[in-house]
Amino acid sequence: MTELNIEQGPIRPPSEAYSLLLRATRNCPWNRCEFCRTYKHEKFGLRPVEEIKKDIDAVREIVSEIKTFSWTQGFGGEITPPLANVILQNPERLPDGFRSVALWLLNGGQNVFLQDGDNLTLKTADLVEVLSYLKGNFPSIQRITTYARAKTVSRRTVEDLQALRDAGLSRIHIGLESGYDPLLQLMKKGVTAQEHVDAGKKVKASGISLSEYVILGLGGKAMWREHAIETAKVLNRINPDFIRVRTLKVLKEMPLHEKIEKGTFILLTDDEVVEEERLLVEQLEGITSTFVSDHVLNLLEEVGGMFPEDKSKMLAVIDHYLALSPERKVNFRLGRRGGLYRSLDDLLNEERWNQVQTALERIETERQGAVEQVISDLMGSFI
Ligand code: SF4
User: Ligand 1 mean position to 87 CA, how many Å?
Assistant: First the structure.
């Protein structure tokens, strides 16, 4: 159908699943975090503004091609699920960028996520130019978001950030990971708790929406308590618009794996991660953030809501899980990671409960204790 393509980076936040992915930089300028493998062995680079603009031009042409295709297929220029199916199942191998634009249009064509790991490394004037060009070409765009490192943001002025906001940048996603300095050092995050606070406050002062990511389980057995308490303190000082949690899962390619092998970092069990999450939520005070557990690795997706009004509801979900019998806990853990459950109430679905129980019994018959490995493998398959 087309030779047009746009460059795509490897990741995006879960909340940007339906956004247009547009690469503004390549890879990560830091690339040393112990728990991250995304850009390992990849070199960081700024993309020239003209190159990014060419991708924006390509998106415009792809949109035009898709609309023409819609007319030829009898869909009247509309992008509907049946048309998207035709496009996505096209026997010709379509470039990733083309599929990405088709999905973006199908989902309203309103949100854009600028990839990769730290786009505030671009000069403010360059990023303003890109944002303006993007909005100029697609007036339908409502939201433009990006990842940025707190260290980089802390070096920007509020005026810089305001210029980005005025040009269309709506939200910055920052990997806070933890607010506990010894843990940030251990994980080679390259940023301090104070820098996280400075960066977060600047983003808030600029009027750009702020999303802070916390890694549940990152403290391990040695630091889980401090991780929860100090992270809550940092978040309480920033009061971000969103607090998003994702659970630690360590793969072989991550530097942290070596620490686990050597026994210098001991992972928490699922139940301990939930205890840690409880402490984090309990310690969050005086904020008006929205708490989101939308990452597939999280055991309790339903721990979410607005602070302060939903705090007791979130704690109740956690306490509900912690009060389950060991048999129900392991059934839930396997069912959740196997995609059969989304919430604790799903345990009441007899058919699904039995399905998970049958799988559990089969796994345990084949090899006693193997269920932990199966759950771990399932989590590994999500990332
Ligand atoms: S800053 Fe982000 S992208 Fe870069 S290594 Fe750390 S976690 Fe990975």
Answer: 34
Residue of minimum CA distance from atom 4 in ligand 1: 31
**CA distances from residue 241 to 35, 70, 82, 132, 173 in whole angstroms, order as listed:** 25, 38, 36, 24, 10
- What letter would DSSP give residue 177? E
Cβ atoms within 10 Å of 251's Cβ, excluding its own:
12
pTM exceeds cut of 0.90? yes
Q: Which tokens go with 169?
A: 């940048």
Which pLDDT belongs to residue 91? 54
- Tokens, residue 1: 């159908």
Average pLDDT, the chain: 94
For residue range 206-217, list pLDDT tens digits in order: 999 999 999 999
* CA of residue 356 to ligand 1 center, whole Å: 36
pLDDT over 80 (residue 29): yes
Report whether the peptide linkage leading into residue 57 is cis, meaning its omega lies within 30 degrees of zero.
no
Residue nearest to atom 5 of ligand 1 (CA): 31
DSSP 28-40: -SS---TT--TTT
The whole-angstrom separation of Cα 211 and Cα 213 is 7
Q: What is the pLDDT of residues 210-250, one digit of tens each?
A: 999 999 999 999 999 999 999 999 999 999 999 999 999 99
Q: Which two tokens stand for residue 71?
A: 């007319």
Nearest to 146 by CA among 127, 125, 133, 126: 127
What is the distance between the alpha carbons of residues 331 and 247, in angstroms, rounded to a whole number? 19
The H or E element spanning position 247 is strand 242-247
Closest CA to 221 of 266, 262, 284, 163: 266
Question: Which helix (H) or strand (E) segment is 55 a member of?
Answer: helix 49-72
- CA 309 – CA 305 distance, rounded (Å): 8
Q: In sequence order, what are the residues at sequence separation of 6 or more whose Cβ sits closer than 8 angstroms to the Cβ of residue 26?
A: 9, 42, 43, 44, 45, 46, 47, 116
Ligand 1 within 6 A of CB of 217: no
Test site for ligand 1: of 23, 26, 35, 36, most ligand atoms within 8 A of the Cβ:
36
Q: How many residues does the chain have?
A: 383
- Cα–Cα distance, 336 to 341 (Å, whole number): 5
- Distance CA(123)–CA(240), nearest Å, equals 24
Give start and end residues of each alpha helix (H) in 107-180: 124-137, 150-154, 158-167
